[in-house]
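name: query_chain
kind: protein
chains: 1
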Amino acid sequence: MTTLHSLTFALIEQLKREITQAARTLRKNPGFGLVVVLTLALGIGANTALFSVLQAVLLRDLPYRHASELVSICERNASQGWDRYAVSLANFYDWRDQNSVFQELAAAAPGVGQLSGPEGPEQIHAAFASANLFPMLGIEPMLGRNFRPEEDQRERANVVILSHRLWETRFRGDTNIIGKALTLSGRDYVVAGVLSSTFRFFTPKTVIGIPANVGEADLWRPLTVWPAALKWRENRDLMAIGRLKPGVSIGQARNEFTMIADRLAKANPGSNGGWSVLIEPLQALVTGQWKAMIAALFGAAGFVLLMVCANVACLALARSASRRREFAVRLAIGASRVGLARQILAENFLLAILGGTLGVLLAHWLIDLLGAMAPAGIPRLDEARIDWRVLAFAAAAVTAVGFGFGLAPAIRASRIDPSLALAEEGRGSSEGPRGSLLRNGLVVAQIAIALTLLGSAGLMLRTMGLLSEVDPGFRSDNLLACDLAPSGPRYASGDANIRLVDQLLARIRGLPQVKLAAVVYGLPFGKMTDSDILVQLDGIDTAESKAPRVASLRQASPGYFEIMGIPVLSGRVIERGDTTNAPRVVVVNEAFSKKFLPGLNPLGRRIISPDLGPNPAEIVGMVRDVKQGSLDAPAHPEIYQPYAQGGMWQFSVVAKTRLAPKEWITFLKQELAAVDPDQPISNFRAIKTDIKDQLATRRFVLLLLSAFATLALVLAALGLYGILSFNLSRRTREMGVRIALGAQRGDVLRLAMGFGIKLMLAGLAAGGLGAVAAGRLLASLLYQVRPGDLTTLAVAVLVLGGSGLAACWLPARRAAIVDPLVALKTD
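structure:
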């Protein structure tokens, strides 16, 4: 034991001496140390910040009990191109009763409600949850209790669970809230529980029919069941989650649910024909949308760290070469080769530790910056922070970097032949071609990585440019919008909604500040869930028709197409005469006509669908396609129904007004209060903002890739400049001799630049391959741009080549104008 303690003490003392010696050596050249530390801080800081995001969003399990056992269950319809669709309530209960692979199944559904109180009406996200949802996830309320199984029955569904946010804001954190009553959509409820501030219900954006606001619910109600709902299988609006039984794989669950889906399709061919089931890990579904983006950014940051390491290694090798005489003298007077190598490693590790420490401090700020810049909806991004895992990553990066740029100089110094090195120094010769081979390779690698990042940023820049030129099919200038969902006993029928819309529009259109106003269900880029319906074409579809025709149903008031600037291609649009008592009419878009009536005139054709009413509806007009959910998605078949013939239960008010947004909100609230003071308005915004939000993810990726590419460009140019300056400084005598013997300065300039150009060409060749490979990783984010786009690559080559030539020209010019007399006296 004494021997072990003595050995440990000796190692600690030796380490202290080497660190002290390393610090003393670095103090002699503070400029070198400062450049290296700042460069490493940038690389390690960026990687640490992005690793914290990667860990929070992708690597950590969802905050539920045994999260790895949880799966998402969706419906899918291959014939319609629907890969993930929300679940029918009737199908959900059949799955629950017929399966043998799940411990339990739970479900949630979107919903809105009007919360009444002394503060006035407020529209909130009032979602539904099966009684077992929170217990299955392992969620216990902060106050009160979860739903009870019997509260899934309609007659007992008079309890609610509040979100922590609503409890704090609306009820001022009342700890005695349990058991108190509140009024929601004209109905009395009792508060059963309050969720904790850490609760999150993650809703994947890739499931059709499930809006993101399910995860942002202000209040939860029991998912009640009544006979009519179980018969209406076409209504798919549930998010279903299951917990697998121990030992059951996802493959086994998929096989069993395939058989269940086949049975349901045979029993209900009208509603379930063509539908199957998709089962995926819940974690993968929630985070899958963001995986490519975060992986691409983390990869780009990793490339920057490699460049930083290569750049610093070049500096370290150059500094090591300039200290050859020092190393040779130390070896000649008895220093051990291992000790010399260890001392050089200590110097470089000290720099790496200083750079890593500064990088972690920088990462704190970068994490906040990323959170502010990132697009909305990234799950758990707010949980990104510096914890022990992130610190462990930073420590690993410091270790790797310390070895990465310190090992080669240490090995080279330990292999120096003292007699040969001192003789070369006396003759003023350089370290020879083998001594510069590694530095040359590092510079080539920097150029290749820089081109890879420049090419990636260029692809995203072209994508953003092309998307910004996409015509959404309507004009968004000076358009303001808000959402309204009439609720309460008064609005149990569609006729009441129609009367509310009529009265509200009459008052709004009477305002002198309002040019145009209309209402619509399904405003482009809005937050309302699309309503897809099955339709038949009278006189065209027969009993033998196999593929069902599906179209998105939208309801609009007269003036909607005018205010939106949607061109009418044929026929007419919705008019004031299209009322409840008038013949049923609809307007279709181009995509509907091309897909369902190719080569035929749609006007006069009749559409049959129970969602449009008991009687067929005549197509009276065709309008241009409008981008609805995404700028880069093709248009789908759409049907516009007069609002007075549909009685929409929620809608958006659209107005073109000279009022500022805040003034418009005040006026609109006043006019609605005059019609019905109990109805709230939500989601005020400019429609241009909705369009801008569609580009948020790509804009974020472009911004970060551009920053990384710019940094890589600077580092590559500095690396090329540094190695050429170092090489030419050691060839000053040669250049002086050439000039003294009659060489023209232009010849010397070309000779000096030639070496740098060769390195640059090698780096560009390797970087071209890297840019194509990186483009393929970005493929899901690109729009109408191929990963190997030659134009983008050519521009990136020109930018990098231009900066590289400038980096070569500066030291080459100094060599070309050297005074021969001064040069011959050098060394």
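note: The longest strand covers residues 236-244.
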